[in-house]
Write a structure and sequence with these properties.
By secondary structure, the chain is mainly alpha-helical. The protein has helices at about 1-20, 30-55, 65-85, 95-100, 105-115, 120-125, 130-140, 150-165, 170-175, 175-195, 195-200, 205-210, 215-240, 245-265, 275-290, 295-305, 310-340, 345-360. It is about 80% helix and about 0% strand. Helix 10 (about 175-195) packs antiparallel against helix 16. The protein is globular, with a radius of gyration of 22 Å.
Length: about 375
């Protein structure tokens, strides 16, 4: 089940905490590398399970808003890590192992909270054929005794699933029925990572230094605050504006900010006040990311697929996301050395391509 899968995944978080937390004491960089690998597996599983679970328990009218809560949790986590990573707090020689070992805290909280959460009613009805239990869970989730509409919707999905044969990952690409939505899901995930957002977060302190900011680490935390604030904005507008519209606005805004950032970095040596423009551009870049490309790709996959192919589709989408994340993280510093201040032109081109794809290929979902 969805809930038990999330519970079991926490084993990886505890293992990673032990490996990273005791790596310095054991004088073992191998433990640190292995711990990072294990926590990466945990993150990959969690970013698949959580949006799927939330999408299956949420009312249709609130699915987008509740799906955005997943991204809100991610950005709040990033902000907390940025604050605790300050040298004056835990980002120093003596306390960094403890900082890395703290990954067990959210896992403990989840292990304590999840037993009080219900299993997905969709999973209970469609996968286990437990109609009474699914209806009981729905009544608790909706706070009403009349869940006829939800039950009818799930039964229709169940009938549709019975007409489908079991969907494998290979079938997602072979079948004309799934190929197009799968392609859309993958490109949306790529639009999130190849937009350049993680280049900004991984190397933001260095970017702010080059922009002439005196305390770049605090500017980086400022970007984290903007990141969190605009995720909250997205939470309230996603159902009104629509997924596709917000994604287009986000991509267009990020492209404009990337151009502005490039201009500011190029002219910085001639015009000192361009450092302020670069800060505004980075903050704007982050804000537009959280309006659309940040939260939407995570939950739109669940909306593109029915219950049968959904787990396989989310697995493929997650793989696409984390692979592109890894590529950007590993390559950006070398590309930046090669291109200098013009490096964000590459991301601008990618953002324009993703905008064109979204405009012509991505349907509006959820409204």
């Amino acid at each position: 089940g969805r809930r038990n899968s999330m519970l079991l995944a926490n084993v990886l978080a505890f293992a990673a905490a032990v490996l990273m937390g005791f790596s310095k004491m054991a004088y073992s960089f191998e433990m640190l590398i292995l711990g990072r690998f294990v926590v990466g597996l945990y993150c990959g599983l969690t970013t698949g399970f959580v949006p799927m679970y939330v999408g299956e328990i949420a009312p249709t009218a609130l699915r987008g808003a509740l799906g955005t809560l997943h991204q809100l949790g991610v950005v709040v986590g990033i902000l907390i890590a940025q604050v605790f990573g300050l040298e004056s707090i835990m980002g120093n020689e003596s306390l960094w192992p403890l900082l890395l070992g703290l990954v067990f805290l959210p896992a403990i909280f989840q292990c304590a909270a999840l037993p009080f959460c219900p299993e997905s009613p969709r999973f209970l009805l469609i996968n286990r054929n437990e109609e009474d239990k699914a209806k009981s869970v729905l009544k608790k989730l909706r706070g009403t005794t009349d869940v006829t509409k939800d039950m009818q919707e799930m039964k229709e999905e169940s009938r549709q699933m019975m007409r489908e044969k079991k969907v494998t990952i290979a079938e997602l690409f072979r079948s004309p029925l799934y190929r197009q939505p799968m392609f859309i899901a993958i490109v949306l995930q790529l639009s999130q990572q190849l937009s350049g957002i993680n280049a900004v977060f991984y190397y933001s302190t260095g970017i702010f230094e080059k922009a002439g900011v005196e305390q770049p680490v605090y500017a980086t935390i400022g970007a984290g605050v903007v990141n969190t604030a605009f995720t909250v904005v997205s939470l309230f507008v996603v159902e009104r504006a629509g997924r596709r519209t917000l994604h287009l606005i986000g991509l267009a805004g990020m492209a404009g900010c990337a151009v502005l950032m490039t201009i500011a970095l190029v002219l910085l040596e001639k015009l000192a006040w361009m450092s302020y423009i670069s800060i505004v551009a980075i903050f704007g870049f982050v804000a537009f990311f959280e309006i659309g490309p940040g939260p939407i790709p995570w939950f739109i996959v669940a909306e593109l697929f029915s219950q049968g192919p959904r787990p396989a589709a989310i697995a493929v989408a997650g793989l696409s996301n984390w692979t592109s994340n890894f590529i950007v993280g590993m390559c950006f510093q070398y590309v930046e050395q090669l291109c200098g201040p013009y490096v964000f032109i590459i991301f601008t081109a990618m953002l324009i391509l993703f905008f064109i794809f979204t405009y012509f290929k991505v349907p509006e979902i959820g409204r």
